[in-house]
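Hello Y.,

Per our agreement to keep a running log of every chain we model this quarter, I'm adding this entry. I've kept the format consistent with earlier entries: sequence first, then predicted structure.
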Amino acid sequence: MTRIVFMGTPEFAVPALERLVAARYVIAAVYTQPDRPSGRGQQLAETPVKRRAMQLGLRVLTPKSLRAPDAIEELRNFAPEALVVAAYGKLLPQAALDVPPRGTLNIHPSLLPKYRGPSPIAGAILSGERETGVTIMLLDAGMDTGPILAQRHELIADDDTAGSLGERLALAGAELLIETLDAWITNAITPQQQDETKASATKLVEKDDGRIDWNLPARQIWLQTRAYSPWPGSFTTWRGAALKILKALASAAQHAAPGTVAIIEGTRDGGKGKQLAIATGEGALIVERLQLEGKRAMTAQEFLAGRPEIAGERLPS
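Predicted structure for the entry above:
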């Protein structure tokens, strides 16, 4: 049986680990990020991959780095025929890539060479793509620049968020991995070099990326609310309190200066009713769900029923 060392960290990587176990590959070890403080209490929390690997009875390692010679020696002692990586969160040094004779297979949630880097799902939504996918590739020393082994396409729906799209891509990537791994091990696949002329890159998403600039077009803000859900979310402030925009639509209507809030008559759920509209640099954002700091998430209609005074105010950019 083929011996594999698996490397992954977030929920996205869990389906791939589960499918490898179900397909009866020998998982010699699972590498994941160290436990980190999480939540309001900042208690140490296990990564989703660590938690699932332990449930499956697998050996788990959480090294801070793979660059030390003893870390490479430990990896070599597991004698993996191949490494499988899914959102591990660390760039592997060449010494680690040189360990497995069949190389390192990586699940990347985009149709490479588009959207290389750490935020390909958010990047595709932000760019207004109608389609994305997953790529099984061989890792090299670059950032997602290695040869492609297989790809699978996935449509992006208008109501997709990074969260919902990521769940589908995780499942698609896990299935494609199993289809590809056997063929790769038995030399039935010829790697294809990436076309550098079509390459694009993404950056690491940070908390402040979610802050809304009302001077942008409504369509771009709408894309942002989806790309940054569930994290970091899209937010503004109202009377000194954070106000998260959880779900919205873009409208071509322009009613006031960017950031100005209005209550308009609109059509929803088959009937007419009041809607919360926020003017933007081009058009307006029709807010469907939102959450004021310290309060529960609610529909725009629930919010307006309790805080009609927001109408006419201008939110900061």
